[in-house]
Amino acid sequence: MGATRIRVAKDKADLVKSLVASEGTTGPFQTYADAMAFAAALGAKRKKRSPLGTISNKEPGPIALDIFVARGYDFVFKLLAIAETKDAKILSMFDEKSEEKRLQIFEEYANGGFEILRDELRGAVDYSERILLILNADRFKQESTQEDFDLSRFL
Prior knowledge:
This protein has helices at 13-19, 32-45, 65-70, 74-85, 96-120, 127-139; strands spanning 5-6, 63-64. It is mainly alpha-helical. It has one domain. Strands 1-2 form a two-stranded antiparallel ribbon. Helix 2 (32-45) packs across helix 5 (96-120) and helix 4 packs across helix 5 (96-120). The chain is globular and about 55 Å long.
């Protein structure tokens, strides 16, 4: 089996580059793999899974799976796959189709997460601060009950 690579959609490439810290930028993530893992988790949390469409061949190009494994993100691939398919056979290390399906699920959730981030980060100067606000909003989201007085009913 050849070197497996994780792909980024071409229309999200600029966003992914801006999320990674480099010379002259202050992105909140150290590597593209970190940004993709976060986006995949966000996409899964908000149930947003999007097909990739056109693939970016320039920066960031397809990222080697080994980078994700070295950073400990291989469990994210497996958790997303089993949550999506509800089939333990997707975790098979010996079935190439299962691995391809796991990678596709991860890529599509990451793409969905990048769509969410693109909308949420629009107009933001400091991505780190805005991402922190997004995480806090999700963390402290309170369900409104019928007993609460809600003025929006009258609009």
